[in-house]
Amino acid sequence: MKKKFLSDRQRVLIGKYKTVNKTLKKLLWIAILWVILYDFILVNIPEWFPKASVLGLLARNICFAYLTGFIFYFLNAHLSSHKTKVKTYRYVANKVEALNSLSMDLILALKNSLGIPNENYDVPTLQDVQLWCQQIPSSSPAPFKTHMYTRTFPDWFTLFQFIDQETTKVVKDLLLIRDSLDSETLRLITNIENNTTTFLNMSRGILINTPNHNLAFFDRFIHSYRSTCKQLSSHLQKEYKVYKEEYHYLERKEREEKNA
Fold first, then answer.
1. Of 254, 233, 136, whose CA–CA distance to 188 is shortest?
2. In this structure, are residues 107 and 178 in contact, taking their beta carbons and an 8 Å threshold?
3. N or C: which end of the chain has fewer CB within 10 A?
C-alpha cells in the first residue's frame, strides 16, 4: 500500500496555492529569491558598477510591494474564487458529463444503425465517422440510446435538433456560473454550442435533401462535436482535480461531523 506523506488537510491547503495563476506564482518566487539574495548576499559585496546598490534596493522595494500585493490578492480574491469553484465542482462536473454523454450517444447511434459493436467509447477517427455517415440515409429513423432508455427519432435531422436543444440547455446552465469556470472551459463549451447550433442543426429539425441522401455532409460536425466534448471532459479531470479533491474532503468531513 502506498504510504501517504501528506494528510488530506495538508493536500487541501497546498491545493489552494496550486490554483493560483502560474505567472503570479513565478513572480512570487522571483520576488522572494531577490529579497533573500539582496539582504543576505549582495549587501555584503562591492558594487559591480556605480549606483548598482541603488538599483538593487529599488528592485528589492518593488519585490516587497509585490509580496504585499500578492498576500492581499491571495487572501481577498483568490481564496474566495477557489472556494466558489470547490462548492460548484459537482454541478460543473455533472454538466460536463452530460455533454460528454450526449456526444458519445450520438456516435453510438451511428454505430447501432450499422450494426457495429460498441467495443469502446473513445473518440473515433474522422475517417471512421466519414465511412459510417456515407452508409446512413439522412431520412432513416435514428435510434438514440441513452443509459436509461432508447428513443427512436423519425429522421436524423430531428435527432440533431434534439441534441442541439439539450446541448444549449447545458451550456446555458454552465454560463450561469461562469465565475466558476476557467477560460479554457468557456472556450470549449462555446465551441460545442456553436458546432451544434450553427452546423449540426442547421436545418432546425426540418427534413432536407442532402447530397447523396446520406449523412456525409455532417460527418465533420459530428466528429468535431464528439472530440470537443471529450476535450472538455479531459480538461475538467486535469485542471479541476484540486477542486474535486477538496470537494470530496469537505463532504467526508461533514459526514464525520454528523456521525460524531
1. 233
2. no
3. N
